[in-house]
Amino acid sequence: MRALVIGAGAVGARAIRQLVESPEVDEVLVVDDDPVRQAAIVETSGPKASAGTEHAAADAVLLATPCGMHGALAAHHVGEGRSVVSTSDSIEDVRALLDLDAEARARKRSVVAGASFSPGYSCVLARHAVARFDTVSEVHVARSGTGGPACARQHHTALTGQALDWREGGWQRRAAGSGRELCWFPDPIGGADCYRAELPDALLLVPAFPGVERVTARLAATRRDRLSAHLPMLRKPHPEGLVGAVRVEVRGWRQGRSDVIVLGALDRPAVAAGATAALALRWAASGRWPVGAAGLGVVPEPVRFLTELVEVGIKAAMFEGGA
Amino acid sequence: MALFRRALVALGLAGLIAAVLRLRGSGGTPPQHGGWRELSGSDLS
Fold first, then answer.
1. Size of interface A-B (CB pairs under 8 A)
2. Taking the alpha carbons of A54, A270, A41, A149 in that order, is the dihedral positive or negative?
């Protein structure tokens, strides 16, 4: 299998590392705007990695560039008959990727949108939890932490604008930065105030779970984050954020009773996002992913997907207890 | 006197902003018992 990875930042570099270590991948073409970084990644990733171009031929394409360019790149590659996996967590990018559904189906290819830590890994956790219910009524996602600088900028931007929630069968826009809720993440992060934000999680989860009544997504933020969200970033983001976490709360009915399952994960967001994206790419390229455009909530075998991620060190957890 | 009034206005504004930030949203209650455990075995079947 020949993989094309566009964007070799914190997430892209981790995905490349996962791909070159996979026996089913023969070649990884690396593309980055920064020629120095591109050369460094190629040099340190072993004999399978080589420099490529944005429109190079491949069996599957991973888009790990900063948000904003994914729709156009995906349209080109799907048009060429390639499956595409995108790590973007921008609503505009995700909409553009989901709009490629008809073309992807016609060409019998997959477009995997939001293949990151959250959305992405969180969508797989949601799918895993949903399988335990007879009927699912609510899915609530929260995340803490950022990956590389592009992710930190997106976090900053997401706290302004409009959050997109699914409520009682309709879309509802609410101000980002509102709706404070204390969410309990796996230790050592623990409790963190989370707020509505301009996140695409609901766009990806609602089609995956027909009949769901409420889907929301929140972002952990400090009051300083919220105050400064409307200003330009006051200082350059760190090369990579510290440890982050995701939390997925699924509510529904099973065996005639209402119940709640809370799943989560703790990791460096860029590492978990890279591993998730690389695995989704391998599944999409080998025909193990449904054709069409969707998020990771449609993962056909969530247990197997999670198990394969455990093998590379990405582990999920379940919260047991209550208020 | 003008300086004193400005200081009062600044303090009032800061308090107002802090109150809005503090009060928006429902907050929540931390879990009183239980905790996180890694998924394994029967959880992944």
1. 70
2. positive
